[in-house]
Amino acid sequence: MSTAVITEPTGEVDAALKFTAGLVVGVPLDAELYNVRNASTLRVKVKDPDQQTQLIVPKHSDFRPMTLSDSDGNNITSDTSDTDLRLLTTVLVSHQVWTEACTIDISLALDLTDVES
After folding, report:
1. DSSP 29
2. Please, which residues bridge with residue 31 across strands?
3. Is the alpha carbon torsion for 104, 106, 109, 111 positive or negative?
4. What is the pLDDT of residues 39-71, one digit of tens each?
5. C-alpha angle 24/28/33, rounded to 5°?
6. How far is Cα 65 from Cα 81, in angstroms, rounded to an integer?
7. Looking at per-residue confidence, does 77 or 96 come out higher?
8. Cα–Cα distance measured from residue 94 to residue 98, given in angstroms and rounded to the nearest whole number
9. Is the peptide bond before 49 cis (omega within 30 degrees of 0)?
10. pTM of the entire structure?
């Protein structure tokens, strides 16, 4: 089973980002991914208040092997570095319609439509 922990954005209302309709704002995304066997199937899911959903493919360079710290504070690569990853990317958000403050949902999903069994 694959799991993900999104550490940023935190989802707190105090951290709201404001932007003008028609312009783009970048939302930083930091996530720890565990037991993801094929990172190319991972998608960033953005859901608007009007229930429209977009699946965004992160760049391959946005994935990094998960690192651990030893007792001396040195970073070492995890034994499961091929399946445990960290995703550091910027999600570009824009909308033409909304003129009032609204909340969007950012989550992660695996797109298994093209994966052969």
Report:
1. E
2. 6, 87
3. positive
4. 888 999 998 877 889 899 999 999 998 876 545
5. 135
6. 5
7. 96
8. 10
9. no
10. 0.75
